[in-house]
Amino acid sequence: MASLKELVHTGALGMGLFALAPMIGPGTSAAYAQSPRYENPRYENPRYAGSPRYDDARQVVGRTQVDLERAASFLRGNKKEQDRLRNAQKHLSDVDRHMAKGKFNKGTLNSAIGDIQNVLDHNVLQSQDRDMLMRDVRELRAIRSERG
Questions:
Q1: 31 and 104 assigned to the same domain
Q2: Does 69 lie in the same domain as 23?
Q3: Rounded to 5 degrees, what are φ and ψ at 132?
Q4: pTM of the model
């Protein structure tokens, strides 16, 4: 993981703002580089770290989001299909947001599962995408039965 100093330097160069680098100052970047918060990639602020008990569930949600993105790339402009995918992605994002805060919201998960099932039932999908989304729905249902 890149240090803040590297990110600032790379970002400044990448955006053509190298002239701003002296404003940051050597003392500032050194302070960040020496801080345990930035040296240790495992540093987590408890307020934003999420709950480790939901790590596996969040991985399933993340993989499902990627699978929906892949399925969306196959679309050819059908508004209803786009709306179904957008609804599923929004509800999955809501599920992840709750889990990141250490909370489990069964209603939001139910909505996400229903939306993905709606995509499976009504959207034109490649067989590979359909298989992946069916697996995702099974895993999300298993999470729902384990947690709620």
A1: no
A2: no
A3: -65, -40
A4: 0.65
Q: Do 96 and 128 reside in the same domain of the chain?
A: yes
**8 and 73 fall within a common domain:** no
143 contacts: CB under 8 Å, gap ≥ 6: 57, 60, 109
Residue pointed to by tokens 């160069």: 13
Domain count, the chain: 2
- Write out the two tokens for 55: 């790590």
DSSP calls for 11-41: HHHHTT-GGGHHHH-HHHHHHHHHSHHHH-T
Those residues of the chain that have pLDDT short of 70 are 1-53, 148
Q: Which residue stretches of 15-126 are H helix?
A: 21-24, 26-34, 36-39, 55-72, 79-100, 106-122
* CA atoms of 62 and 71, how far apart (whole Å): 14
Amino acid at 112: A
